[in-house]
Amino acid sequence: MRTIGIVTEYDPFHSGHGEQIRTLRRTFGPDCAIVCAMSGNWVQRGQAALADKWTRARLALDGGADLVLEIPTLWAASSAETFARGGVGVLAATGVVDTLSFGSEAGDLAPLVQAADCLHTPAWQEALHRWLDRGLSFPAARQRAVADVAGEAVAACLDSPNNNLGVEYLLALEALGSEITPHTIRRRGTGHDQDPEEGADHVSASWLRQRILAEEPAPLVPYLSFQAERTLRRDPASLAYGTRGVLARLRTMTEADFARLPDSGEGLSHRLFRAVQETNSLEDLYAQVRAKRYPLARVRRLVLWAFLGLEAQDRPESLPYLRVLGFTGQGQEVLRQMKTTATLPILVKPAHAARLSPEAQKLFALEARCTALYDLCRKEFGHTPGPNEYTEGPIRL
Asked: CA-CA distance, 313 to 362, in Å (whole number)?
């Protein structure tokens, strides 16, 4: 039986994700197992996921996944490089995943492999520093440096977000020395934040999030199932719902506190410290801090880490355990295999965290704190009970 891994956020799980899983079963056989490494409650763009990780795991299982494992916050809410390293690390540690599938605008591994190979060369490093010295952000400087070394055709693939992630997955596989085989599928549908054209098969997750958070009444079927839409509209989450709490936390921080956040160099920590003293909304804060050198996603992640009380030193060199968020009958068979193949402890029940190493217990406690703060960012906070890291078990279908 083939076991296919997917690194994902499923924020939310939509028709395009379902099509990817169906395509994988057509390609690798109907009995292949689909294992997902999914972000927890906080996601890579520096935001709260629209729904908590157990709800999103259930929707993923409903959509065809067999086993959902968590990418811990310290990797999930980080740069593309760290996110990819965490997600691929989860899949590699299972010992059963033989293929890593991801969507890309290219739909072809060749240009992604060429770009990844270029990023290893000394010539690229030299070109990168030249562009950074000119004030470009890291993503822009990286692409210009690839163009200088490998040509515009190779660099062009870095213009697209899914291609970029694909390159990071390839780099993560190489860094881990993994024998997992990469496999890409062309991403179809509208682009990030674009309105769908009439009759479009799929839309972006960002477009769906905007409609749900704006409480637009127009139905989102067929991009979401009826059940998924009803679930996601019931109690969505957003960092904006917890604005006062976020600003209260940030206003108690010193400039030295901001400097201990990851990726806060180049004067960014000072810029954020000054802006937070006078702003009264997160959008205004982002607008004041972002600049040509500081992309919006980087600023958002910095604000999120500050709110969660995280520092760069909190992230260990490698993942200390595998957390199970949900599984089907076939996923349970995969878990049985993992008992003999996994290179990390498998955490199924929260109570089992007491058996982990001290370092792993520390990460679990940190994750519990992040979940408690996620509760503050739910629209229905105070009206309905939120999820609790110490009591929520995996979803079983």
From this structure: 13
* Count, residues in the chain: 397
User: For each of the chain's 397 residues, which pLDDT tens digit applies?
Assistant: 899 999 999 999 999 999 999 999 999 999 999 999 999 999 999 999 999 999 999 999 999 999 999 999 999 999 999 999 999 999 999 999 999 999 999 999 999 999 999 998 999 999 999 999 998 888 899 999 999 999 998 999 898 999 999 999 999 999 999 999 999 999 876 655 556 655 567 899 999 999 999 999 999 999 999 999 999 999 999 999 999 999 999 999 999 999 999 888 878 999 999 999 999 999 999 999 998 788 899 999 999 999 999 998 999 999 999 999 999 999 999 999 999 999 999 999 999 999 999 999 999 999 999 999 999 999 999 998 888 999 999 999 9
Longest dimension (CA), the chain: 58
User: Strand, coil or helix: what is 166?
Assistant: helix
Distance of CA 18 to the CA centre of its chain: 18
Integer CA distances (angstroms), 259 to 104, 120, 256, 376, in order: 35, 29, 5, 25
- The dihedral through the CA atoms of 119, 124, 128, 131 has a sign that is negative
Pairing of strands 33-39, 181-186: unpaired
Nearest Cα to Cα of residue 70 among 242, 391, 60: 60
Task: Sort residue 343 into left (φ over 0), alpha (ψ -120 to 50) or beta.
Answer: alpha
Is 67 in a helix, a strand, or coil?
strand
Q: Residue 347 forms beta bridges with which residues?
A: 323
Q: What global pTM score does this model have?
A: 0.95
CA 145 – CA 152 distance, rounded (Å): 10
| Cα 241 to Cα 100, 211, 327, 389, distances in angstroms | 35, 16, 31, 21
Residue in this structure with the two tokens 């260990």, named with its chain if needed: 316
Which of 162, 161, 179, 12 shows the shortest CA–CA distance to 102?
Answer: 162
H-only helix segments in the chain: 15-28, 53-62, 73-76, 80-94, 109-118, 122-133, 138-150, 152-155, 161-176, 205-213, 226-234, 243-251, 255-259, 268-276, 282-289, 296-308, 329-341, 358-375
Contact 320, 359 (CB under 8 A): yes
Whole-number Å distance between alpha carbons of 46 and 316: 20
